[in-house]
Structure prediction request, 468 residues.
Amino acid sequence: MTRRSTLGARNRGIPEATVARLPVYLRALHTLAERDIVTVSSEELAAAAGVNSAKLRKDLSHLGSYGTRGVGYEVQYLVYQISRELGLTQDWSVAIVGLGNLGRALAGYGGFASRGFRMAALLDADPVIVGERINGLTVEHIDKLEQIIADCAISIAVLAVPASAAQPVCDRVVSSGVTSILNFAPVVLAVPEGVDVRKVDLSIELQILAFHEQRKAGGPAGVEQEYLEAVDGS
Amino acid sequence: MTRRSTLGARNRGIPEATVARLPVYLRALHTLAERDIVTVSSEELAAAAGVNSAKLRKDLSHLGSYGTRGVGYEVQYLVYQISRELGLTQDWSVAIVGLGNLGRALAGYGGFASRGFRMAALLDADPVIVGERINGLTVEHIDKLEQIIADCAISIAVLAVPASAAQPVCDRVVSSGVTSILNFAPVVLAVPEGVDVRKVDLSIELQILAFHEQRKAGGPAGVEQEYLEAVDGS
DNA sequence: CGTTGTGAAGAGGTTCACAGCA
DNA sequence: TGCTGTGAACCTCTTCACAACG
Prediction:
């Protein structure tokens, strides 16, 4: 039941929280590289990434000792090491399923095709949308899903389908061999062991913000009512 | 420097991890309510929300004792309590800044206007886009940002602007009094103490998936090279 | 009885503070 | 000297296991 893999000589157990921050560091490093900055200290890089320097150093220490004491980190070298660790030195083929408003926006998003990701296929069930060309790709009918996933060697599926379609579509991409899913539909997907799902949910984010907003304003509505009841001795 | 507020009689210190899950529970409860289910056990609700039952019970216990031992939770009552805690029993006015592909998709997204959120304003800098009607609202020029935020009592700003515009726009909404921001631009926003920012970043999500995908395939590229170097005695 | 609510133990993540090294 | 890398302390979150209770 343990997930620790023990593959390779180096410790492969990078904490999940660290993995989630590596892309942020990578982006900050790319910005520095564009400005021809050669070396960066943990303090500077941490500031650019919005974390504190101790956390940054501990995160990087999980990848190895890629810094120089008294100096800092070489930007280009660190870019390479983080990229390699994240698996961005190889190409991943991505399919978008569902080309409504959101799917189109994702398909058109430039940063999407950032290093390492290749948008390989667009799929939809609506005959009106099928055949349309979006960002240089033709939208295929979802009936061809299994075949296209195999032919294009899709490894990541992005689901931008309606909530009701999400689980069935998920089941199909999983049984076609996809083991990484980015889900924009507002449902909790059930997947077999070994399949990774990440969820992006606008409405959940708003609700979390509302909670904090309310707290800043002095706690939940109904508190006064409860207070009155308590005073009343009920 | 402590953030504990000690307002009100009940313990207001709900763990952040719990807050992030309450919207998921709420959605599951709404689904149950639609099917006219009156009572639910922690086991059932947990399954619907994709968590284990101990975690669900602990989460709910932070809100109060709203269950009945031997029976479970009353669906409608729990919906109300969670909604109240999240601040969804009042209305929050939301503004979307930036109406490119993504901004339009967000403006058109139905679930966006889910209970508690009112899309109150759309803003863009592009004169071609300004004046356009999207989902019943007219896009206003960003020059009117300060005025509109005040007039519409905007409490949450959604930023769907290009990366280069994100920080300046953020500064403007913050100085207009907004203290909750949902950021879709791929930058780390700097904000004053007391302002909450949540980030949605497609490319980061893909990179995290790539990391796990690579691990399933047997670890990072370059491991063999390192291995050879080690054998070589370098 | 069956299920909640919760202390206690455990796991994971963050921060501190400084030894170790270029 | 200045910055990295890291043990140790601390904190947060999760899970267990069971007492409490309708």
Residues 202-234 of chain B form one domain. The longest helix of chain B spans residues 16-34. DSSP finds nine helices and ten strands in chain B. The two ends of chain B are 50 Å apart (CA to CA).
